[in-house]
């Protein structure tokens, strides 16, 4: 969602803030702004649209005189995406400026209260009540910290915020509840941001703020306080070992393409330290004292949900563990039947997905054990789960997730081998074969990615006329069909439906005509004869077909897309980038904003 960056230090603040906002663009936004204090006055610059609109307003030399400031990219939740609703928001007395990520659920009541005190509002946002209420309590004689305490104790909802005040030009106050906020610790300078890439050029030393914590920052100091008792808190400093190149395009046209081509390295990183080749076993030291699941419930959203659906087939087949997979936004509200012996796995790339985090908390309320599978060290899910398994995908900048799903699938596959071995279900031959295939995967995928890219480019140009697509698959390929359809929708804005191929004749077949192409996942496996039968039904109605398949399948379709005949389930790791590349090339050909598609945000931290 929205992106926050704050800086206080010894350098000109505004260029650092703009740079940080550019690194947060992947979160999605419709307006942007900055604020800083100078000559006992708060200065605010903001604009609708992309960051270059904001930069065009920052032409005054004065902006280089300040060494403290805050910035924001807004993704509209309350109020239209207009300049007046852009952040930062000013208090009525113009002493305070505030940026905010989240939703203030009781903002109407607070706004009514403040209007009764004579305070006028200048925007339609929920955020403005925060800055107006803090300023109001400060005018009543409270210190800034006490005014923040008083305000936050009245607020219902989620927030991450950063605040400046004109009489303290080198200080930033910030806090969080149910929205991510990270403190960056430098030498004579400190940062606050929604995500690490915003300040990674300057420091790798970070502190992950917890819910209901406030921090007061100056260039040389920081102090964290508990909202509950106003006491100071010590927090561990974590060193981030990404290099900045990991968060840059490295010569690729788009982050999405770069991240698709990083999948061989991601698989390598996922496997590192997880396999004992001498014993042919998979290692999860995190789970040594964790109960073996009798039943597993996977809870996730979007692409992570599809990874969980894919894992259901693997876990049930290899580890004989019954698996249910829930969309997090449904799971959290349906009063699921959970007992204390159940194991819940929550999957989230960011570790901050609001519905998934709520599902985790619901599971813990019911005394279930929770495994968190996420990519971001120190994220809320990582901190709150009983056990966390990191996917090792590195920073993923493009809004459309690619390498994160690959890493989730690899880790879930490894978990099936780990639990299957724990249950003594795997023969030595099975283990040695599967581990050998896993270790060969990075090189095999690296060898084929460029060929896949070329074919995706050709097919995208050929089918760019289509307004709708079917994606069909069976078994393991059904969740991948859902993901292929999602990717096409996300970045090319072409309507697409993913279906279990056997379900097509239960209604959707009515849509088939020559203008409605089908993208079939049809590798040479035990379900291929069934898929062939489904595709014949499509052809009988004049539908055009692209089929991802193998050389020996002998499928007679409009466009066979031949890929190497990997053993199942390993072929999934070729099918996945093929689907991603087709969606990518379609979006590029149609002139869409690939990395920041309309209406979407990288991390969905509000409902």
UniProtKB/TrEMBL annotation:
Residue ranges constituting the Glutamine amidotransferase type-2 domain according to the UniProt record: 2-220
Domain of life: Bacteria
Name by which UniProt lists this protein: Glutamine--fructose-6-phosphate aminotransferase [isomerizing]
Native source species: Desulfonauticus submarinus
TM region(s), chain numbering: none
UniProt xrefs under Gene3D superfamilies: Glucose-6-phosphate isomerase like protein, domain 1, Glutamine Phosphoribosylpyrophosphate, subunit 1, domain 1
EC number(s) on file: 2.6.1.16
Quaternary structure (record): Homodimer.
Every SIS domain range: 283-425, 459-597
Annotated catalytic residues: 2, 602
Keywords per UniProt: Aminotransferase, Cytoplasm, Glutamine amidotransferase, Repeat, Transferase
Reaction(s) catalysed by this chain's protein: D-fructose 6-phosphate + L-glutamine = D-glucosamine 6-phosphate + L-glutamate
Lineage: Bacteria, Pseudomonadati, Thermodesulfobacteriota, Desulfovibrionia, Desulfovibrionales
Gene Ontology molecular functions: carbohydrate derivative binding; glutamine-fructose-6-phosphate transaminase (isomerizing) activity
Cellular compartments per GO CC: cytosol
InterPro entries cross-referenced by the UniProt entry: GATase_2_dom, GFAT, GFAT_N, GlmS/AgaS_SIS, GlmS/FrlB_SIS, Ntn_hydrolases_N, SIS_dom, SIS_dom_sf
